[in-house]
Amino acid sequence: MKSLEQAVQLFQAGKLAEAEAACRAFRKKAPKHPGALHLEGLCAAGRGAVGEAIELLERAARHAPAYEEAQHDLGHLYARAGRAEDAERVWRRSIARFPMSPAAYDALGVLLTRARRFDEAILLLVTALGLDAGDPLARKHLGDTHWDAGREAEAMPHHEAAFDLWRGPPDPVFFEHLWQQATRAGKHDRARAVLERWREGCPDDPVAAHLLAASSGGAAPARASDGYVEHTFDAFAATFDEQLASIGYRTHTLVAEALVRARPEEGEVGLDAGCGTGLCGPLLRPRARRLVGVDLSSAMLARAAGTGCYDELVHAELSRFLAERGGFDWIVSADTLCYFGELAGVLGGVARALLSGGHVVFSVERLADGDAFALQAHGRYSHTPAFVERSLGDAGLTLVAQATETLRHENGRPVEGLIVTAAR
Ligand SMILES: C[S@@+](CC[C@H](N)C(=O)[O-])C[C@H]1O[C@@H](n2cnc3c(N)ncnc32)[C@H](O)[C@@H]1O
């Protein structure tokens, strides 16, 4: 019989399948052992078998009603299974039994925040912090509650304090949120400190690497990395259309209008380069006999597929796609070349992929000073009109029109962009 201690060691080493097997072996001799039932349940949860895990932890709790850790984890499993009432019951009982232990106050606070019972959640989280003021998670959760309740200014000090207390590996979602909050508030030193800690804890994280490059003011990479683009837009896809509508996004309309001016004919073969969720699709579809979309984010592409506007959707990096495919009468690219700094390479691909006499219409964010491009702190590039014109020339394309337009609003301010039309 394997010892339970061995099973615990395997579990702590992340070897869940072996830990589960060790628990099972142990329970052949001691089937009701609460610790073994508990650990086996956690292993089952680790492989996604939440129902099985709940059953095991309920048994552990039945055999040892005072075994608090099992009760606590059972609450988390109920919450994960969508059984919020059961989770609340378990954690309220823990609070009644162990009123000086902060864990259940914290867990219940998070649960009630999800249920939008903000006032009750705040009371619980403040109590958790009263019992352990140095707990970064409870502090973060209190910030989250204020944030979800729409009280962003009240969230910020708690999130900042959680960051100062943070000791373990960075939580990328939280750290990105912290960076965004600090940037929006103009606290650039703090934004940079967040990125540096994030990068230090997760040296391979492409988002931390890109944003750090953007905030450093040093030499910018030639374009945003594939990892950064995929991560950012996979995470953004679910709320992209709604968020862009809320900031008055109109780049898709502007490029579609410019395309009609350049090519009034219908029934051609077109490419939507960086098609995203397909906002351009309904505007481009009536113009095209065949419409292809390409994008690096599979979650964005899944939404584009839902529009029913595209004949073909390709999951690929744009420059690589353009090196392999061609035969397009026109190529449209809305709000995508702002993830490229250098433009000559991607525009060279555009020139190759266009038929002779074909047109490209794209947007970039306008850089007022300097003569080339800059990677801005928010992570997108901006370009000067002169640089765009030079890059088109280097790629063998002829500038037809370049108009300055408001692409959307950010923090209440207009984002100025260029709508560029060029011909091969
Ligand atoms: C801001 S969205 C714009 C989407 C769409 N064109 C629109 O106007 O709604 C930018 C899109 O470009 C894609 N993208 C950025 N860099 C890319 C690259 N190098 N190759 C392919 N897709 C890229 C992103 O995945 C994202 O879907």
How do you describe this structure in short?
With 424 residues, the chain is an alpha/beta fold. The protein is built from 21 helices and nine strands.
Describe the protein's topology.
Blueprint: H1 4-12, H2 16-29, H3 34-46, H4 50-63, H5 68-80, H6 84-97, H7 102-114, H8 118-131, H9 136-148, H10 152-165, H11 172-184, H12 188-201, H13 206-216, H14 226-236, H15 240-246, H16 251-262, E1 268-273, H17 281-284, E2 288-295, H18 298-307, E3 312-315, H19 318-324, E4 328-333, H20 344-353, E5 354-366, E6 373-375, E7 381-383, H21 385-394, E8 398-410, E9 413-423
Parallel strand pairs: 1-2, 1-4, 2-3, 4-5, 5-7
Antiparallel strand pairs: 5-9, 6-7, 8-9
Helix pairs in contact: 1-2, 1-3, 2-3, 3-4, 4-5, 5-6, 5-7, 6-7, 7-8, 7-9, 8-9, 9-10, 11-12, 12-13, 13-14, 19-20
This protein binds S-adenosylmethionine.
Residues 229, 233, 251-252, 274-276, 279-280, 295-297, 300, 317-318, 334-336, 339 line the site of S-adenosylmethionine.
